From TrEMBL:
Protein topology in the membrane: Peripheral membrane protein
Record keywords, A-Z: ATP synthesis, Cell membrane, CF(1), Hydrogen ion transport, Ion transport, Membrane, Transport
Pfam families, alphabetized: OSCP
Main location: membrane
Keyword Ion transport: yes
UniProt-listed HAMAP family: ATP_synth_delta_bact
InterPro entries the UniProt entry points to: ATP_synth_OSCP/delta_N_sf, ATPase_OSCP/dsu
Annotated protein name in UniProt: ATP synthase subunit delta
Taxonomic classification: Bacteria, Pseudomonadati, Bacteroidota, Flavobacteriia, Flavobacteriales
Protein localization: Cell membrane; Membrane
Protein role: This protein is part of the stalk that links CF(0) to CF(1). It either transmits conformational changes from CF(0) to CF(1) or is implicated in proton conduction. F(1)F(0) ATP synthase produces ATP from ADP in the presence of a proton or sodium gradient. F-type ATPases consist of two structural domains, F(1) containing the extramembraneous catalytic core and F(0) containing the membrane proton channel, linked together by a central stalk and a peripheral stalk. During catalysis, ATP synthesis in the catalytic domain of F(1) is coupled via a rotary mechanism of the central stalk subunits to proton translocation.
């Protein structure tokens, strides 16, 4: 728990600094890159979490992987290394993106579908999300064929499951109870 608190504190500090330097959007882009890269590379994630790998080696890897990063992002990595908190990098990046979205008054709406969303459906989802929450949103489409059809919409803490698999599961539970 203290790790996530620390990650939020680092993220708030970075957001404040990035906002002062008018580079918060560029840093947000860096944070997306960091979370995506760590999610895709199990080796990178293990290296960041490992107490055995020297800090200098971690820094060398991170500077080569994220060589186009903003100065604020690079300074964050240096600070995390000097404070021996580099294992928090992914959490800090995720927290930063949430804080940045809150600051801008936007949110991410995750829509899970069996097939990719069309532009028309994406527009309808954005309209519905704005109607429900009063905030602008970005749509992230996740394709999961196991839901068979329909969709699962997740915005913040709200989830609406209109998938065929969910409806079949409800029917199955209904029949087994009777």
């Amino acid at each position: 728990m203290s790790g996530s608190r620390a990650a939020i504190r680092y993220a708030k500090a970075v957001l404040s600094l990035a906002t002062d330097q008018k580079s918060s959007e560029a840093v947000n882009s860096d944070m997306k890159t960091i979370t995506n890269t760590i999610a895709q590379s199990e080796d990178l994630n293990q290296m960041l979490q490992s107490p055995v790998v020297r800090s200098s080696d971690k820094k060398a890897v991170l500077t080569s992987v994220f060589k186009d990063a903003n100065v604020v992002t690079t300074n964050l990595i240096d600070t995390l290394i000097s404070n021996k908190r580099l294992a928090l990098l992914n959490d800090v990046a995720a927290s930063y993106m949430q804080l940045y979205d809150q600051m801008r008054g936007t949110q991410v709406a995750t829509v899970t579908t069996a097939i990719p969303l069309t532009a028309d459906l994406k527009t309808k989802v954005l309209t519905k999300v704005k109607e429900l929450t009063g905030k602008e949103a970005e749509v992230e489409n996740i394709i999961d064929e196991s839901i068979l059809g329909g969709f699962i919409l997740r915005v913040g803490d709200i989830q609406y499951n209109a998938s065929i698999a969910n409806k079949l599961d409800k029917l199955k539970r209904e029949f087994t109870l009777n």
